[in-house]
Amino acid sequence: MSATLWTVLGVASALGQTITTGGSDWPQFRGNANLNGVTTATIPDQLSLAWTYDAGESIDSSASIVGGTVYVGSQMGELHAVNLVTGELRWKYNTVEPIGESSPAVHDGVVFVGDLGGTVHAVDARTGDRRWTFATESEVKSSPVVVDGKVLVGSYDTFLYALDEQTGELAWKVGTDGYVHGTAAVSEGVTYVAGCDGFLRTIRISDGEVLNILDAGAYTGASATLVGERMYFGTFDNEVLAIDLETGSLAWRYEHPTRRFPFYSSAAVTDDLVVIGGRDKMVHALDRDTGENVWIFTARARVDSSPVVSGKRVYVGSHDGRLYVLDLASGEKLWEFEAGSPLSASPAIVDGYVVIGSQDGLLFAFH
Q1: What is the structure's pLDDT at 194?
Q2: Are the beta carbons of 142 and 156 closer than 8 angstroms?
Q3: What's the order of all strands across the beta sheet hosting 293-298?
Q4: Which domains are assigned to the chain?
Q5: Which portions of the chain are predicted below pLDDT 70?
């Protein structure tokens, strides 16, 4: 990988600004448009199971929580709206095709989600009625992001789409040389998308013009996290990268000295740390400035779930079927819950509650 990574096709990229998700809602994958997985929500020191909800088939989709309702997709081909306090079903919307890893985005009373048949759905958040649908040419595992009146979502047909939020009509699409699996990170009128073709693209949201292209050097399935002037993401070449957005240079590269496994998890980035799960069964905490390892927590199976940070704690699932709560400073395990089935989805956190789905179709809420 070269020292300077941008191929400049237009104007320089905008610099990201740190966003922290408020405690009352978790409206999209990773909580906010920067995808940094950090929230101000207040969570009890001692968690207990509040309720479980059976969605019928595997939940690979990470939940969103808005206005006291949990929204989550399932392999049954259904989008579920569940009462946060009671766990009771409010409505179900039939997508026909299964919902995989695409996580709902909730904006202005509408829920947006993609399915494995390639359709993007807009659903009334209160009633579960269909607003519109848009068909791509292949499965949608990317999670929608809503910004500036557009719904941004990737498809395995190799395109990133921008759809009109109100009508679902195509505003623009940008082609890549591989699947668009990751979720778009957004800041200051531009979106950053890590692709399975090994490139990170900067795209102007207003018109879809590609501004910059970064050769990351490896297949990237994770969503890139945008914080301050840097992007952070793991690759299938067993590395975590930090990219300086102003200069287009590599700020640092991390890889475990002996265990070489891909990173599929998306990073949670705080003021000091980058916390990310690996297929090496580990959760890695790296110094945000240098990339040096601060601590490692070892689970019993791979960690594809993306960590969430609230206060001084890290919340993350594992394919070993456990939800872990770790100390942010040391990585010490503070608590675990055995769900009984792999947890590939990521936690959604609001004041008083942690919600996560499992591959046996159960949605768990802890308070």
Answers
A1: 87
A2: no
A3: 268-269, 273-277, 282-287, 293-298
A4: 6-366 (2.130.10.10)
A5: 1-19
